[in-house]
Write a structure and sequence with these properties.
Number of strands: 10
Strand content: 5-15%
Radius of gyration: 22 Å
Order of helices and strands: EHEEEEEHHHHEEEHHHEH
CATH class of the largest domain: Alpha Beta
CATH superfamily of the largest domain: Type I PLP-dependent aspartate aminotransferase-like (Major domain)
CATH architecture of the largest domain: 3-Layer(aba) Sandwich
Helix content: 25-40%
Structural class: alpha+beta
Strand order of the largest sheet: 1-2-5-6
Number of domains: 2
Largest sheet: 4 strands, mixed
Length: 279
């Protein structure tokens, strides 16, 4: 579900400034190739590691490979505090400006360090400071990051074990060079129609399953500002097949087994309710 690194070069134009690989579901993109392309064309790499805390690529933490790395602590993430995020700066040239943007467009950080007698507005910016209460709530989770990660991987592996022999669904593929964080477990169904039937079926048994993002190029705003490069061979089709199953720290292995049982029953019921005509 990640960017196809073999198609990046053909999308680069004279206006291209950066490559933004999204580590979907906490599974790393092919970063060696991406960094080589960026170097060749003198581009920046901004890692969208929003879902990638505790995930790695060839032993390197996601977000630490490109020039900038972005994390999310939104309520849907493995470690959260409602709304917050973090930026990892791997290029010293960006440090000063990042502080200014974070401080509402002012050089207040220099003032606090005693480098200025007063601070002023010098650039664009906004209020990106989480409250101390939010930060404390998040910090407590980060102190238990390994414990949380181990539980999520345990649940992910149970899903995989329970559904691996199903011929009716397609499971996630995890490359050997990466270590993921159990951020989500998704399955792919035949098409959007079957996915909705599955959602409705699981809902009857108190199981919440959801689909994920609508492709950017289908949104009204993106149609106005950018061009889809190449043919839409996979993006829309795969987004219409994908279904996320429950995944959170308080979920139990027995819950996962129950969910998988109901998924298998969905297909058994579908077969038994199908009219078969013989000629």
């Amino acid at each position: 579900m990640n960017i196809d690194e073999s198609k990046i070069e053909q999308a680069i134009t004279s206006k291209t400034k950066a490559i933004v690989p999204v580590h979907y579901a906490g599974v790393a993109c092919e970063m060696d190739t991406i960094m080589e392309i960026a170097k060749k064309y003198e581009l920046y790499v901004i890692e969208d590691a929003a879902q990638g805390v505790m995930s790695t690529y060839k032993g390197k933490a996601l977000g630490s490979i490109g020039h900038l790395g972005c994390f999310s602590f939104h309520e849907t993430k493995n470690y959260h505090c409602g709304e917050a995020g973090a930026i990892i700066i791997n290029n010293e040239d960006f440090i000063d400006r990042a502080e200014i943007i974070r401080e509402k467009g002012t050089n207040r950080s220099l003032f606090l360090r005693g480098s200025l007698d007063k601070y002023r507005w010098v650039d664009i910016g906004s209020s990106y400071l989480p409250s101390e209460l939010n930060a404390a709530f998040l910090y407590a989770q980060l102190q238990e990051a390994e414990k949380v990660n181990e539980k999520r991987i345990l649940l992910w592996e149970e899903y995989s074990k329970q559904l691996k022999d199903s011929v009716d669904i397609e499971l996630q593929v995890i490359p050997n060079s990466v270590k993921h964080n159990g951020h989500m477990f998704y399955i792919k169904l035949k098409n959007i129609k079957q996915r909705q039937k599955m959602i409705d079926y699981l809902h009857k048994y108190g199981i919440q399953s959801v689909f994920h993002y609508i492709p950017l190029h289908e949104s009204k705003k993106c149609k106005k500002y950018y061009v889809f490069n190449g043919l839409d061979k996979y993006t829309t089709k795969e987004s219409e097949r994908l279904l996320r199953l429950p995944m959170y720290y308080d979920l139990n292995v027995s819950d996962v087994q129950y969910i998988c049982k109901k998924i298998r029953e969905f297909y058994n019921d579908s077969i038994s309710n199908t009219d078969i005509s013989f000629i």
